[in-house]
Design brief:
The structure is a single chain. This protein is an alpha/beta fold. It has 12 helices and 20 strands. Strand 2, helix 2 (87-98) and strand 3 (102-110) form a beta-alpha-beta unit. The two termini are 16 Å apart.
């Protein structure tokens, strides 16, 4: 009997389906040694179909930037060209202006008109409409709500105003959290960067704690928030909420500029290192002088390999490609990057990433490498199944080795499941492996590592109960679904040219029962 895939991939399964056996070990239940049949896999080569294109996966990668007045979906910036009330059209404009390669967008909603009053339903509907536009295009938001835009006079909002607005926004964000990568703290000061608010709430620990406690309690399950500086996070006296608070660095210059505090020797450096291991990290470079006349504009190319090292060390999940878009981004796109450079820099790399099908060395660009390795990058190395045990017991033991080639471990919870597809592609069996993919540590050594490398691979295991009468060709697949949004959320695709992507699952082995 065929089982509905959506139900299998979004419902927790009974523990009877779970099993673990070391490679070549005897089955505890039967005493038989495993007779593994192996399917090796490889990464993506430059000359594979789409081998030089972005692999869009949820909540990681390069991002664009969009800004809306919640009142009417106009732009807060006079004469902004890359803007439409229709979010999908705005994304089209951004793709044309800055090029492809983003999977996210920073999304500002300015609440200037309602800073000291209730947000009207019409404005809430506008916000939800924009989030729906992101969903239609496969994007997710680095979300920030703000009052002060630096153009109009700063508003005189209180802590209670902010808490009231968080309460209004929380149900909306929860309904749309499939397209929210992170809900940044925002609210306070110009652009929500926690400086210059009228009442200087960002300087008082009791105000910071009250706002952040309200925000963290409003977060949908699994989502994080972010603040800009370690000193602000350290002001939070409610320590119970800190496991949901990461960072955003809004001035990434590798310490060369006056406002990049994410550098060794800064008092906050140990905190950044510690928090980055498990909480969301976002960043943007300054505007360059071709984009802005402000004195903080930055017009020197930020070195791509050094940037990769810093982003890897601080386990960054996302980075803006809108900022420094006429200096550094073109520099990264023009600069070749070789396998030797990556290996010497102790950065993560797949065996195939710099090789064509003939095994010849092929240079990538610094831009490609950063695009592909921000956040997580999961690659299947081998799948194994015991067909003899399946025929004897009616359950198919399966193991799959996965390695994380990205800069960061995954930061959001997600089920890890193995499924069995019949010849028509229908799911006929599924099992939850019990694995927590957030434990899949990235490869490579960060700037501060003590010499202990991450394990070669993480192995997930389960036994798939075969349906009665199952015969002939079947396929085993690894599924990493969004369990909170069945049928709507985005699943994770592995970075393998040898792994077929079929209806949101990664096919890792062909099996004939």
């Amino acid at each position: 009997m065929t089982v509905d895939r959506r139900r299998l991939l979004t419902t927790a399964l009974g523990t009877a389906a779970l099993a673990a056996a070391p490679l070549g070990a005897a089955s505890a239940a039967t005493g038989h040694a495993r007779a593994w049949r192996r399917t090796p896999h490889r990464g993506i080569r430059p000359d594979d179909p789409d081998g030089r294109s972005a692999l869009p996966n949820p909540r990681r990668g390069f991002r664009y930037e969009m800004s809306y007045n919640a009142l009417d979906l106009t732009s807060p910036w006079p004469n902004e060209q890359d803007h439409s009330p229709d979010a999908a059209k705005t994304l089209d404009l951004l793709e044309r202006e800055y090029g492809a390669g983003a999977n996210l967008t920073q999304l500002y909603f300015y609440l200037w008109d309602f800073a000291t009053s209730t947000i009207p339903q019409s404005a809430l509907d506008n916000i939800e409409r924009v989030l729906g536009g992101l969903r239609s295009r496969g994007y997710a938001a680095v979300l920030r709500f703000v009052y002060d835009d630096g153009v109009r006079e700063n508003r005189r909002y209180t802590v209670r105003d902010i808490q009231r607005h968080i309460g209004q926004l929380a149900p909306l964000v929860a309904r749309n959290s499939d397209v929210v990568a992170v809900w940044q703290a925002g609210f306070l000061g110009t652009w929500g960067e926690w400086h210059g608010s009228h009442y200087r709430h960002e300087t008082y620990p009791d105000a910071v704690t009250a706002i952040m406690t309200t925000l963290v309690e409003a977060l949908p399950p699994g989502l994080h928030t972010q603040v800009r500086y370690a000193e602000k996070r350290d002001m939070i006296t409610n320590r119970a909420i800190l496991d949901r608070v990461g960072f955003h660095n809004d001035y990434v210059t590798l310490g060369e500029g006056p406002w990049d505090y994410y550098v060794p020797g800064n008092p906050g450096w140990p905190t950044y290192l510690d928090v980055a291991r498990t909480r969301m990290m976002d960043g943007e470079m300054p505007w360059d002088k071709g984009q802005s006349s402000d004195p903080y504009a930055w017009s020197t190319v930020i070195p791509g390999v050094a940037a990769a090292r810093r982003l890897q060390t601080l386990r960054f999940d996302s980075l803006s490609l809108v900022h420094n878009a006429t200096v550094t981004i073109p520099g990264w796109k023009a600069a070749p990057l070789t396998e030797r450079q990556v290996v010497e820099a102790q950065l993560p790399v797949s065996d195939e990433y710099f090789r064509d099908r003939a095994g010849r060395s092929v240079a990538r660009t610094q831009f490609e490498y950063l695009r592909d390795h921000l956040g997580y990058r999961m690659e299947v190395r081998e799948a194994r199944y015991d067909l003899a045990a399946a025929r004897r017991l009616g359950r198919l033991p399966v193991e799959v080795d996965v390695v994380n080639r990205g800069f960061a471990p995954p930061k959001h919870p997600r089920p890890v499941r193995l499924v069995l597809l019949d010849a028509r592609g229908r799911t006929v069996a599924a099992a939850d492996t019990g694995a927590d993919w957030r434990d899949w540590r990235p490869q490579g050594r960060a700037e501060t590592d003590d010499g202990h490398a991450a394990p070669a691979a993480s192995t997930v295991r389960a036994e798939l109960a075969l349906p009665a009468g199952a015969r002939g060709a079947h396929r085993v697949a690894l599924a990493l679904p969004d369990a909170a949004f069945p049928g709507r959320g985005r699943a994770v695709r592995c970075a393998n040219a040898s792994v077929d992507w079929v209806d949101g699952v990664n096919v890792v082995a062909e099996v004939r029962l």
